[in-house]
Automatic annotation (TrEMBL):
Name of the protein in its database record: EcsC
Organism: Terrisporobacter othiniensis
InterPro entries for the chain: EcsC
Length: 240
């Protein structure tokens, strides 16, 4: 085993340990604060967020608009992850530039940032799935992508449930229905939206919107990239 794989396995074990940690008091308080804060937001804001997530989930489950690559074959883990990290950096720059532009526009343009950022996230995950050798033409692989987004952006308590499914994905996916219309995506969109609102709201504030939008979008892509890498590592024999 080379040094890269030794380091990667250590990092992956630490990440899994973090995912399994008990829910902290701070996380419980933060979750309650976010829910209260979200209840105070204008109805129009909730409609935009809800519709954006609904559209994204349906596009992933029922469409192929994001599919661009065949699964990568016959390359090492190190080679795969070099390509993955270059993809993350590319999409991060795109998200940060987009966040600066829409954040500078205040409330109206800031609201348009949410669906744009969702599209960037999904496109990145489709690319990462292919690089790790998974075929997203299989709806169960597209469902796994939705679980990655859930794990990255849901509350800690809800994320633990998602992690348990993903850690045992082969067994879990065997029990999934053949008809993708039976998938219940409503809880997914609610958890995702509730987590993201607080960070994204700062982007809409006049004066600080541009700087915060630039920063938040970059951090969100960093977080998504880390979760995606470790989520696909869990599915590889080399990490079992």
């Amino acid at each position: 085993m080379d040094n890269y794989m030794i380091d990667a396995k250590v990092q992956h074990k630490l990440w899994k340990r973090e995912m399994k940690k008990k829910v902290s008091l701070i996380n419980k308080v933060t979750s309650m604060t976010q829910k209260k804060f979200n209840s105070m937001l204008p109805k129009k804001y909730h409609e935009i967020l809800t519709n954006a997530v609904k559209t994204m989930v349906k596009s992933v489950l029922f469409g192929y608009k994001y599919i661009t690559k065949e699964p990568f074959e016959n390359i090492s883990i190190e080679e795969r992850e070099k390509i993955v990290n270059s993809k993350i950096n590319f999409y991060k720059k795109t998200a940060m530039a987009e966040g600066f532009a829409t954040g500078a526009g205040g409330i109206i343009l800031g609201m348009t940032d949410f669906p744009l950022l969702l599209s960037i996230k999904v496109k990145l995950l489709y690319d990462i799935a292919a690089i790790y050798g998974f075929d997203v033409r299989d709806y169960k692989e597209r469902l796994y992508i939705l679980h990655i987004i859930q794990l990255a952006f849901s509350s800690q308590s809800y994320g633990k449930n998602i992690f348990d499914k993903m850690e045992n994905w082969e067994a879990y996916s065997c029990g999934l229905p053949n008809d993708i219309n039976d998938f219940n995506w409503q809880s997914f969109q609610q958890e995702y939206r509730d987590y993201l609102d607080l960070a994204k709201l700062l982007q809409l504030m006049p004066g600080i919107g541009a700087a915060v939008g630039f920063y938040v979008n970059g951090k969100l892509l960093d977080k998504l990239g880390e979760v995606a890498i470790n989520s696909y590592r869990m599915r590889l024999e080399e990490f079992k």
